[in-house]
Predict the structure.
Amino acid sequence: MTIAITGATGQLGRLVIDKLKGKLPADQIVALARSPEKAADLGVAARIFDYDRPETLSAALAGVDTLLLISSSEVGKREAQHAAVVEAAKQAGIGRIVYTSLLRADTSALSLASEHLFTEKLILASGIPYTFLRNGWYVENYAASVQGALAHGALIGAAGQGRIAAAARADYADAAVAVLAGADHAGKIYELAGDTAFTLADLAAELSRQTGRDIPFQNLAPADYAAALTGAGVPAPFAEMLAGWDVEIAKGALFDDGHTLSRLIGRPTVSLADGVKALIG
């Protein structure tokens, strides 16, 4: 069985490949990347795979049985990029696609959801056996916020008391490996999230505890939060997107207590304390 991983040089892709090598021989793993030379340190075969150059895709999938499609990082371009990948997978005769989607992509109010749901529908229409990993928030998504809080003495956001069932990137990587290397996952949709949800106030309190400083959470109006981000150098469109996500987080968009992720990986997900410790560095 040959397994190929898209976005192999990205943070999630690298983790998946490293962990997958503990389950399978390296010659059964293929790293797919826009710049294969950047995958030289992964210890597996690497092939060029550029979402924006569809002519590179089908050939790169030759001989591949299972494809892990890690969603593109380019919000706004995912539909065209993922459509090209699914078409190439059909042409190459891929036996299964595992796709990293978004928590409750079919009902989520987050603006991110539409591109993920579009991709899920494409895969379903392709007739290729599938597994959807609907990943919740990564604790690492708050890396910049934590560094900003350490620099300025306060954690800011617009998520109010919204509870966030985040997990570490390594937790989601373990889930991908469990599905890629395991059996009986075809046709399954997994809603994946951390075991213990936290608010941004909880995050600030844990940051305060670990640093010995008083770092409060300041809940801002969405427009004020976007303005603060823009003032810190975040491009305005992305700042507005982040603020919009916080509005939905406040309504529960990232809360989940199903514990599917910890059951799938056979261990508890990373705690808030350990997650913050890693973010502090």
